[in-house]
Amino acid sequence: MNKANNQKEKPLVIVGLSGGVDSSVTAALLLEQGYEVIGVFMKNWSANTQGCCSTDQDLADARNVAQLLNIPFYVWNFEHQYAEKVMNYFFAEYQAGRTPNPDVMCNKEIKFKLFLERALMMGADYIATGHYARNVFNQETKTYSLLRGIDDSKDQSYFLCTLGQKELSHSLFPIGEYKKTVVRKLAEKFKLPTAKKKDSQGICFIGNINVKKFLQENIKSIAGDIIDTDEKIVGQHDGAVYYTLGQREGLDIRNGQGPYYVVDKNIEKNQIIVTTDPQDPLLWKKEFTISNLNMVNQENKWPNEADVQICYGHPAHKAKLEKTNEDKITITFDQPQRAITPGQLAAIYQQDELIGCGTITDVR
């Protein structure tokens, strides 16, 4: 971790303790490195969605970690703001026929905005989270670079693609320097109660839920046709907005053929378009536009060529970039990519450095 020099003998860091092993090790490492540490549990969602909400257990685990490390511990409630900024966005995007990324929005609006602002008001120098990413300070340019985490299989820099210099100047990601296996060993070394706790899954602060059922609880079902690429009706659906490109599961098609894959949606006609060909050209495309651009370091320029990641878990691939106006870039991959999905974020990388991102639109 390479940060600008701080004049305090013990800089104050407020760690977002989620109750998981990654944030627990983050707090322990910062103590070991000589920081003054405070633990904060963010209460952003307490609704018992599909019986999966683990807020109470996570809170108890976070408190136990703070007690073991002998650090102050607080609970900050951002439920209202989370509902307004993250979940309203989530539902609105699905209703518009797009597929949102609530984790990226949570980082943008909650963790690295509200949480950061409150931490700074309390006199903190930094906040820290258990993200697998690296924040490197360049002494010559006096700027910060956001790099992929050392562990390729756990890298979470994609979720931080909307951050900029202001946020990075006050953020620490200690475990980005380690592989997950090492983080588990560190948790055992520090005797943390979360050392063997399973990693959280699913939507940020909500958990591993059935997204369709969750959407049905909040967006009215409207039945419609499932058609194939020859415009033949092959089944029925209960709402085109519930489905996303590339999806295979959850399609009510009983003609003995398949499997089927969603290749397009017509929201106006409430239709889902499917194919049985996993290599269908409608599923594999090369060109799209990104808007709502964010550049990590505004002093940089958008590259003409870069590695582009179209969603979390999808490997980055080489592409050409052409800036068409102040807020739009046309991206063309060298090779077609599967299920480039409007509403998702495309993250732009040069080697391990995240340059910026934009929201995917106009896939063609």
Can you give a write-up of this model?
With 364 residues, this protein is α/β, with parallel strands linked by helices. The chain has helices spanning 21-32, 55-69, 79-95, 102-121, 165-168, 180-189, 211-216; strands spanning 12-16, 36-43, 73-77, 126-128, 133-138, 143-148, 171-172, 224-228, 233-237, 261-266, 271-275, 284-295, 305-309, 317-325, 328-338, 345-350, 353-361. The strands form four sheets. The protein has a six-stranded antiparallel β-barrel. The longest helix has 20 residues, at 102-121. The chain starts with 11 loop residues before the first strand and ends with a strand. The model has no long low-confidence stretch (mean pLDDT 93).
Question: What is the CATH class name of the largest domain?
Answer: Alpha Beta
Oligomer: single chain
Instruction: For the record, give the distance between the C-alpha atoms at the N and C termini, rounded to a whole number.
Output: 41 Å
Q: What is the total tally of β strands?
A: 17
User: In CATH terms, what is the fold-level topology of the largest domain?
Assistant: Rossmann fold
Helix content: 10-25%
Largest β sheet strand count, sense and barrel closure: 6 strands, antiparallel, barrel
| Discrete helix count | 7
Total number of domains: 3
Principal-axes shape call? globular
**Poorly predicted ranges (pLDDT <50, ≥5 residues)?**
none
- Please tell me the overall pLDDT: 93
CATH superfamily of the largest domain: HUPs
What value does the Rg take, in angstroms? 22 Å
**Biggest sheet, strands in spatial order?**
12-15-14-13-16-17
Structural class: alpha/beta
- Output the helix-strand order: EHEHEHHEEEHEHHEEEEEEEEEE
User: What would CATH call the architecture of the largest domain?
Assistant: 3-Layer(aba) Sandwich
